[in-house]
Design goal:
The complex is a heterodimer of chains A (418) and B (155).
Chain A (H helix, E strand, L loop, with lengths): L38 E8 L6 E12 L15 E7 L8 E11 L22 E11 L5 E9 L13 H6 L3 E3 L2 E9 L24 E10 H4 L15 E15 L7 E12 L4 H5 L2 H9 L5 H10 L3 H9 L12 H6 L11 E4 L21 H10 L32
Chain B lengths: L2 H27 L8 H14 L2 H8 L3 E8 L10 E2 L16 E4 L3 H9 L4 E13 L7 E14 L1
Parallel strand pairs in B: 3-5
Antiparallel strand pairs in B: 1-4, 2-3, 4-5
Classes of the chains: A alpha+beta (418), B alpha+beta (155).
Amino acid sequence: MKKRFLTIAGLSLAAGAITATASSHREAPMIGEDQFADNTDVYAFISPTDANKLVLVADYVPLLLPQSGPNFYRFAEDAQYDINIDNDGDAVPDWTYRYEFETAVKNGNTFLYNVGPVDSLQSQNLNVTQTYSLWKINRKNGSRQRIMSGAPVAPWNVGKRSFPNYEPVALQAIREANGTKSFAGPRDEPFFVDLHVFDLLGVGGAPTTDGVNVMSLVLEVPITELAKGGTRPTSTTDKTSVVGIYASASRPQIRILRKTRDSDDYGKMIQVSRLGWPLVNEVIVPLKDKDKYNRSEPKDDVANFGAYILDPEVPKLLNLVLDAGCPETPSGGRTDIVGLLAPNGTKPADLLRINIAEGQTNAQSHFPNGRALADDVTDTLLTVACNNNAAIGDGVNANDKPFTTTFPYLASPHSGNP
Amino acid sequence: MTRTTILALVLAACGRSESHRPAARDIQLRPDLSHATQADLATELDQAERRGTWREVRQRWEGQQLHWTVTRHEPLCRSASACNVAAFPVQQPATHGWLPELSFAPGELEKLTAACGNEDCQLEFIGTLSRLELSGDLPTSVHLDHVRVVGARKG
């Protein structure tokens, strides 16, 4: 018997059916082979503690088992991790915050990540550490400002013997410079979904991303640092009152593996992963174009992938497999979805757009106006995609851990040995 | 006639012959495409994917003035400098270059808006195919500049 799950909200009595997938975890063939550069989710919301600041979260390295020693997960040293911001509606980034990482090993003569209990980031027992530089890059003129250097990455939550009190140690990794806060390190995977979707849409409320971690970059930035002209807009309807955000990762063009020593990297950096909205490359872009999507730029999304948005595959699958009752694509295509990707007359693109005008608060930061950590974007997108006046979902409606009310807002990562 | 003279004559003849070839190739590569439709371009792009002839297609089409009829969906076309239009029906998209980007000549987007408002619109235009980005590895991008509206009607 076909397994189904259904939630119906509001007054609708129409039968709906459900599908879901991880937002962008291993979503394309090439990036599936490059886990450390795989961008999984992007979040953006007005800070709950300071309405003059915007919180940006970019998650990478999907579906991490906490007990993944001895080489616990980290950020790649030869990758660039970017959070890109368009502030004038043309879908071209105006600012980029770039993270670049370095790894240090105190003692290479042991296999251990830590050689004793760790009670602070300065502990000599912490054998493997990472630090990063954070750059703010003006994409219009190419100028770069290094905001932070030598900032620590929070360590992996190895287990209770290594980290008797993990979270205070991890939070020591928070850095602040010129009003910008930054955190880099492992967190509990905030995206919640039933991944059984890939078994022929066989979802039924199984919280399959519970218990796994992800590598998070979290920024809290004064809105005036991002807004066009450095001034927060007063109108909520102007094109420049929304910023569009996407995260990306880039790798060097050439890697030479050597028998006699470590590999060498050469050439310019090539974008290998990107993400704005959840689930776009995952379930809208078909297999043949997924790698192309990761290489391309949001400004070209309509020209390149607009066909898949105007005539999406998801509602057809919902009908075919689960008899969901989604209407056929209208002759003019799903311009309603395009409209959601283009608020305030901005150029349609796969950007997570959020209104930053004066007066905007955290309470208004919910997908598709930004994305809060607790937003059930799977249900929202399924409902929009099917468009049959019934709210449908995957049956997983909340994260396994509560989010916090203070920076970096994501929950502490699961322990490798709780 | 000395060998040197013969060699010089042969070289001169070859030179003349060579100097004519580009012209012949130009004729072959740059035909009049003013009556060619988006379906013609789509066919050539499909062939290019099979044969690897991306460069030849670009040489034939870039710079050509084209006269096409497309569908304008308002959410895709709100700016005179960045307007995407549907060159093929939603349910029958081409593999490549399905939503070309138009840059309108001054005042032309206003004509379109006056005719159709926010509704879907059949747009007949003349414009120059200024940029055709093609390869087997990146999505195809079609850009037309100096677009002038020939006709526009709702529907």
